[in-house]
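Both lines are given unchanged directly below:

***
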Amino acid sequence: MVALKLHFLLIPSLMSIMGAAEYMMQDAALLRYIDQRFLSLEKRLEKCNQDVLEYVDEFREFSRMVLSRLTGLNSDKGEVKREVENLLTRIEHAQRDIDYFGSVMDSNACVEVHEDLLKEQLLEEAEAKKRLKVMLNASCDHVLEGIRSLKVVKKTGGKHGSWMKDPGKKHTKIYLLSGSVNNVILEFANIMTFMENNQTLKARRVPLPLPWEGTGHVIYQGFLFYHRHGSLNEIIKFNIQRRSVADQMLLPGAGRIPAYQLSPQTKIDLAVDEQGLWALHAEPETGGNIVITKINPAAMAVEHSWDTPCSSKDAEAAFMACNTLHVVYNSPSGGSSRIQCVYDVLGALNAHINPGLHFPKRQGGHSTVHYNPKEKQLFAWGDGSQIIYKLHTKQK
């Protein structure tokens, strides 16, 4: 019985001792963990210090190198400065020598040189005029004396448009281009087909990949030349048979104002005469006067330009005939059309004249007036009518 009581008294004591031992073990583990963490931090701090020392050494080495380079640059700068000063001194000496030689030269020699240059310049100008006459094949020996009669061939289309023939020897086809903005040409076999009542049904429609603007287009040597719609001064060369664009060019100075005040839809008016392809337009720099430009149709390049005294004010159309510009004027309300300014690019004085030639038997304006050098006729478009004017000429 006594032994049983002792047993019950020893159990709590043993439990207390075991609990204390367990706590001691946990504390020991915590101390080991803390010690390891401190060791790790100390190693990292040591590595950081070592890196900083390496960075400091590297920076010091780089600083020494930079200072050495800068010192070298300063010495080079001084050397360059000395060389420049030496060169300037030599230039001053040379300039004094040149001034001296210039002062002792015979002045008559300079006069002779200037006279030689003047003679050479005059010879060049004379040669340029000869080349220009050869270029234009100055074989035109007639001038326009009057507009004898008219024939209204057809009335089709709106207020603006143009119609024409290719002035080549074997061309009989008629081309109709209706409207100031469009992209379809109507091609007719001949003028008789064009005059028939159902002529539009017999026409061959030729679509253009790029639409035209204005009414100043021409057909020459199988190509349609026209001002491209939406462009300032781009001229398109279109192959009618192949239905493709063959070339294009920009006409300097053109496209900013209308070529004719009474035909504002046309900024560039192309023309054909005995000497080939021309372009007519007005420029603000000329006070609105008309500018003539000769174009090489094969190269699509400008050959020469002339500023004329012919004003675009109250002008409705113009055409080239035998190297000569003829400007057609009218009243804004639409009266009798008349030619009041003529300018021959190869004239003796290049002076304009006012022949006062009236278009016969007709009141109203023209959208286009184009000259056909083969037939010596004007193909005009007036208020929707297609008109032919026959011309009377005389010897120059």
Observations:
- The radius of gyration is 47 Å.
- Residues 106-111 have pLDDT under 50 and may be disordered.
- The helical segments are 2-104, 107-135, 191-195.
- The domain at 139-395 is CATH 2.120.10 (Neuraminidase).
